[in-house]
Amino acid sequence: MKRIVLGVSAGIAAYKSVLLLRLLREAGHHVDVIPTGNVVNFVGNATWEALSGNPVTSNVFDAVDTVNHVRLGQQADLVLVVPATADILARAAAGLANDLLTGTLLATRAPVVMAPAMHTEMWQHPSTAANVATLRNRGVRVIEPASGRLTGKDSGPGRLPEPEEIFAAIQDLLGEPVLAGRKVVITAGGTREPLDPVRFLGNRSSGRQGVALAQAARDAGAEVTLIATHLEVPVPHGVNVIHASSALELRDAVFEHAPGHDALIMNAAVADFRPASVENSKIKKRDEHSAPVIELVRNPDILAELVQARRSNEQLPGVIVGFAAETGDEQGTVLEYGQAKLARKGCEMLVVNEVGASLTFGQDTNTIQVLFADGRPSATASGSKIDVARVVIQELAAEINGHTTDA
């Protein structure tokens, strides 16, 4: 049994939340319903109380002795907001806490799923799109609305999916966590190789995909250690963080913290080369025409070193996942380069994605293909980085558990 908070915001689709509540209760879950103040214009509190078996209020000043706006979020295993109107999306994205539902959203550390429902023009408005992107970047699962008949004669995207579809979409959050009791190390972000006290060689990685992997692994029940190298996004709550900067620092951190863990995901974008020497002071322009010559040396291949070291160190993770950020050329495709890298590195899984100026790095979406050393069919995923991360974590769980977990 899970403890679920079902937030209901004031839209005509609120009646579908009644049916979702019934499905959750029939599945044996404890459900606390938190309607926003105007939901009573669509469905009354008597309905929510009768079907949930729990008292229902939207007032933060009810049950003050139990500090409801904090307690409900702290106790929840899952928070759903169905339907999620444009208003609740905006308030959640802004971090407001002006009613019981938004206060609960701030207080919870449980997975949050929101199912938007609104007219097409509102769903497609740039403000709503920005709010959805913000929420997804924070790890909220925002379900895409359906397309169909809306209120009145309108039709288009913005329709709330049917309760059975929403219930099916959250099954991975309602069952036993697939990584319960497991310990996972994840690297994320881009390394920086110093030239002098001011300048460095870097890359376009924002760390979004690695942070999404950390959140997905946490939500799957794992104890997660994130080795972070220059992230542009915040670290999820409930994740242990180790900071590194250069490739050499990342290597040291991985070899120090990976032993004793079940899996290691090498998602960080690690520089292949670094300056042979680092100047102690800022490199100056001595005249208008000359330019310094920077000699580069190769950085260690951390992934290959780990696989090699594991042969004599059984404390290193039994499952190692590499990432291949590739670009195709006249000599091969992205997938061909990925397959060659998997064979060369010797890790159990390799996640391949195409990168470029407007692909993957710094973007909110990603498309991947997961390759396996044992030759089983590859897995693909496309969508927001948290959606992609969940697929990778499901495949990781299957690898750790002997391929018994459904992907």
TrEMBL record:
Catalytic activity: (R)-4'-phosphopantothenate + L-cysteine + CTP = N-[(R)-4-phosphopantothenoyl]-L-cysteine + CMP + diphosphate + H(+); N-[(R)-4-phosphopantothenoyl]-L-cysteine + H(+) = (R)-4'-phosphopantetheine + CO2
GO biological process annotation, one example: pantothenate catabolic process
Binding site for CTP: D272, K282, P300, D301, I302, L303, F323, K341, K345
Endpoints of the signal sequence: none
E.C. code: 4.1.1.36, 6.3.2.5
Residue numbers spanned by region Phosphopantothenoylcysteine decarboxylase: 1-183
Cofactor: binding details: Binds 1 FMN per subunit.
Organism domain of life: Bacteria
Domain (DNA/pantothenate metabolism flavoprotein C-terminal): residue spans on this chain: 179-397
Region named Phosphopantothenate--cysteine ligase: 184-407
Keywords associated with the record: Decarboxylase, Flavoprotein, FMN, Ligase, Lyase, Magnesium, Metal-binding, Multifunctional enzyme
Entry-linked Pfam families: DFP (PF04127), Flavoprotein (PF02441)
Function: Catalyzes two sequential steps in the biosynthesis of coenzyme A. In the first step cysteine is conjugated to 4'-phosphopantothenate to form 4-phosphopantothenoylcysteine. In the second step the latter compound is decarboxylated to form 4'-phosphopantotheine.
NCBIfam families, A to Z: coaBC_dfp (TIGR00521)
Sequence similarity: In the N-terminal section; belongs to the HFCD (homo-oligomeric flavin containing Cys decarboxylase) superfamily.
HAMAP family: CoaBC
Protein name per UniProt: Coenzyme A biosynthesis bifunctional protein CoaBC
Native organism: Glutamicibacter uratoxydans (Arthrobacter uratoxydans)
Upper taxonomic lineage: Bacteria, Bacillati, Actinomycetota, Actinomycetes, Micrococcales
